[in-house]
Amino acid sequence: MKAAVLYEHGGPDKLQMGEVPTPQPHKNEVLVRLAVAGINHVDIWVRKGLPAYPVTLPHVMGADGAGVVEAVGPEAEGVTEGDRVVIIPGLSCGSCAYCLRGQDNQCDTFEIMGTKRHGTYAEYILVPDQNVFSIPDNFSFEKAAAFPLAYWTAWHMLLGRAKLAPKEKVLVVGASAGVAIAAIQIGKWRDAKVLAVTTSPNKADKIKKMGANEVFVQEGGKGFSKWVLKATSGSGVDVAFEHVGPATWEESVKSLGRYGRLVTCGATSGPDVKMDLRYLFSRDLALFGAKMGTQKEFQELAALVFDGKIDPPPQGKCPGPQGCPEYEKWKAAATKVIDLDHDVVLLRGGARLEAEVDVPEDLEAGQVGLQFI
Ligand SMILES: [Zn+2]
Questions:
Q1: Based on the number of CB atoms within 10 Å of its own CB, is 231 exposed (0-12), middle (13-18) or buried (19 or more)?
Q2: Which residue from 5, 11, 280, 293 could staple onto 18, CB 3.0 to 4.6 Å apart?
Q3: Which fold has domain 151-289?
């Protein structure tokens, strides 16, 4: 089968179209012919060879994808050939203590799709039966592949961990990132007041369109807590949604009101943060970590997405021909490019995709889709 193969770690040029053996399903495995592969930031970390994601080269990366079930193993349950499915991008064993109590995101052998085993940048993917989820006939593969990793993570953070309640106020920093857009949409669906902070003035309108009640543009991400306190009449927010790290952490803490909860899933700007403990105890604050999400949470989220209650933006956004240095390469590699107002670029690579496939350095979740059928 064709796949975008990582032959060695490094820059985007290390990822090339190639041939790898088509896997066959055994036991409870399912072979899915992928229609669309979604791209996430974790792909870049795998490509660069971060120690957290050791892979055996050559490797096929990619966590998100959707397509049609081609074949099933003899013990596979709940899925049949021809089913339209989305890939659930978290792999868990189903039998360890964490899995048995529904905390399968902390499974002893948990892994993100495409970080150890081969992922979705290919014509086919082999997954356990519990990692496919049916999508409705009228729901597009592009949308199905756009939401899992980012929206699942944001869902687990806001609802599973921080227990965001209706009418509460939530602060989302780094608001143009994929996981942050997901948080804004989930916050809106939850009927919370969403305050968003971004360093990109040209993305403020878009962030508002996604559902943020108010957007603050701040160079360098410093000093936004004063804005938050003003926007909340001095009370601060109930929940701070963090994924950035030291660049925003102190201001996020200062933005919290009494009994506020900070939840984080990432450390994009670094792993070490500074914290004034006086905020923590004097305001009864709580800190939560979050990793991906649980199977049950995926089911809850997917039902809302398929129902249109949470509507991920079109798969394939890229800043447009001028803003995206990789655009011409992508264009050369694609059989069809749909350019919506120069804001959204949907790339349909097709099985004839032969040129090298690059992932832009600044790419966020769901930004570009490769289509294989
Ligand atoms: Zn387990």
A1: buried
A2: 5
A3: Quinone Oxidoreductase; Chain A, domain 1 (3.90.180)
